[in-house]
Design goal:
Blueprint (H helix, E strand, L loop, with lengths): L3 E4 L25 E5 L8 E6 L4 E7 L2 E6 L4 E6 L4 E5 L4 E5 L6 E6 L8 E2 L2 H17 L2
Antiparallel strand pairs: 1-7, 2-9, 3-8, 3-10, 4-7, 4-9, 5-6, 5-8
Bound molecules: thymidine-5'-diphosphate.
The site of thymidine-5'-diphosphate (TYD) has 6 residues, from β2 and β3.
Amino acid sequence: MQITKYTFPIHGDDRGQLVAIEELRDIPFSIRRVYYMYSTVQGVTRGYHAHKSLEQILICVHGSCKIRLDDGMEKEEVLLDKPYEGLYVSNVVWREMFDFSPDAVLMVLASELYDEADYIRNYDQFLEFIHKEQIYTSGQT
Ligand code: TYD
C-alpha cells in the first residue's frame, strides 16, 4: 500500500526550529480540527478504527510512536519520530497507534469536525465497507 509522508519545511535559525503547515498548500485538505494525544500509558495501543470520509495528517511533534495502517489488503508500520514529518492517512484505512515513547505528543490535523457517525470501529464492518465500496465502484459506468 502507498504510504504518503510529508516533510515540512523547517524555518530554523540560531533561536531554534519552527514548522508551519498551511492547508491546501503543505497538506491536501482544509483543516477543520486539531487534536493531540500525550501522557499515553506505556504499552497502550490506540485507534482501532477507520473513517468513512475523514482524512488526517499525523505528526509526532515530540517523542516517537508507530502507526499501523491497513487498507484491507496490506498492512504497513510507520515510525513517526520527527516533528517536521507528517503521515497522511486517507479515509477507509484502519489505523492503530502504538509504541508511544513516554514523552510522545501525537498531533492530528483532521479534515472534518468530530463525528462519531464517520467512525468504523469494528474490523469486520471495515472489511464489509470496503467490499461494498468496490461493488459500487465496479458497478459505475
Ligand atoms: P477515541 O476515538 O477513543 O481515540 P482513539 O480511537 O483515536 O484512540 O477518543 C477518545 C475520546 O475522545 C472519545 O470519548 C471521543 C473523544 N474525542 C472527541 O471528543 N473529539 C475528538 O476530536 C476525538 C478524536 C475524540
